[in-house]
Design brief:
Layout lengths: L9 H10 L4 H23 L7 H19 L9 H16 L3 E2 L2 E2 L3
Antiparallel strand pairs: 1-2
């Protein structure tokens, strides 16, 4: 069985997270899933309908897992590092939105 690495903090974890999200298709799948998370969250709030919260969990993971299993061909980091992985998803999402990361990797030196 693969040994689990221990990360002291998110700053140590995030470079590993990026290595698990190298391929453009994986990043696109995550980006779509996280975008839909926000769509369903806004719908739940605006319509005061809690049922819209269910897709905020299912849809992003479905897109992410397709990216990992079929494109990246690795296991999602969520299985070993759920909290830091979720934080990594949001960080990568907003870095892509701000142009600090791209779908093909870092745009910074």
């Amino acid at each position: 069985m693969e040994e689990r690495k221990t990360y002291k903090n998110f700053e140590e974890f995030y470079p590993y997270y990026l290595t698990e999200h190298k391929k453009p298709g994986t990043r696109v799948a995550h980006f779509i899933g996280t975008s839909l998370f926000f769509v369903f969250l806004v719908l739940a709030i605006v319509r005061l309908e809690p049922m819209y919260l269910l897709p905020t969990v299912i849809v992003p993971y479905a897109f992410a897992w397709v990216g990992h299993f079929f494109i990246e061909k690795n296991k999602p980091a969520t299985f070993q590092y759920p909290g830091m992985s979720l934080r990594g998803d949001f960080k990568l999402y907003f870095q892509i939105l701000l142009g600090k990361e791209g779908f093909t990797g870092s745009t910074e030196d």
